[in-house]
Amino acid sequence: MSKEHPGFRIFVLGAGFSVPAGLPTAAELYPEVVRRVERSYGKDNRFHWAVQDYIDYRRRSDGIELTIDTIDLEEFMSFLDIEHFLGLEGSDTLSEHGNAAQLFVKRYIGQIIHERTPSKDSLPQEYYEFAEKLSVKDIVITLNYDVVLERALEYVGKPYRLFPQRYGKIGDGFNTVDDSRDEVTILKLHGSLDWFSNKSYLHGLEAFKKQDVDGRPNDPIFNNNDKYGQYPLVDGPRNEDDPLLNIYRLKNIDLFYGNYDPPAIPMILSPSHMKIVYANPFLDFWWGSGRAGGMNLGISIIGFSLPLHDDYLRICLYRMISNFQEVAWDQPLLDFYKNHVKLVDFRTDKEGKDELLERYRFIDYEKAEVYTDGFSVDAVEFIFNQSRYA
């Protein structure tokens, strides 16, 4: 009988992790976003103006002829992200979430993904098995906006948190970590469809106070009689300037996205090549990740094919996997040897498989195993199979 694994593993989840649950790919999202914008606002609005501006830009700058139907969502959002981040639109730079076109896209991406996400008791079996096999000492790093993993963990009754550390005491030079609770740690590097920021609302309160105005500013979430059941993402004491203090989850997410036109913008990074410039609220999730792996017992990458434009993720995974495969490889830790790196993706032919291996060429494949039939019950068995024993 094998010993129970102590955990201390890292799991990296990409879009391929969620596809078996029925979640849309990026290619599916764009036309549906366009349809919903047109359903609610017609074709004369800031989203369509931005689309035409982008089409003109690509034609005049690159000689490429595009239509609204042939635009690549990530390239379009990269164009908008640069405009917003640099404030090129001046006074039309609407909010921390983006300019008008970006707000349309984020709202409807959240709604579409929510509608396609099964309830926690209707997920495919592989998600429950994955959740069951996770240890409360494991860390899951996900690049997905959806709540599939959270629902699977809630269904099997396994506790989790959505931030790196809980603190017992905040000090002048350092904080005391509260490690009294056993929880799976989930770090959503690109945000989540059920996360919302109260920063704009707090700025409105401050403005009311300075102008000696009674009452509170209108806000669809934070001044709406607790309609959507918002509650803080983090708990316990935090540093006053911790950006995670501004993030709230919604309990009544079905009610929120049931609106014909969602009334607020979820805290998600744009699906663009420039998303890293908006990572500030989530920087705590990245802290120290370049030194991770050395003393971990496993690393699995599921459904993330490492696109060439995601250099920030490439650097992070390069550091993490290099540490993992080069430090203490033949030294037992907690009576276990490190397991092989597990790489899971969906590739149907040799060309696709070779491309995957090439993108992860920094992996020492003598210390790794690859599974290319996608995420499934068999993939879960492959991921958690311990192939090296002390």
Automatic annotation (TrEMBL):
Superkingdom field: Bacteria
Protein name (record): SIR2 family protein
UniProt organism field: Rheinheimera marina
Lineage, uppermost ranks: Bacteria, Pseudomonadati, Pseudomonadota, Gammaproteobacteria, Chromatiales
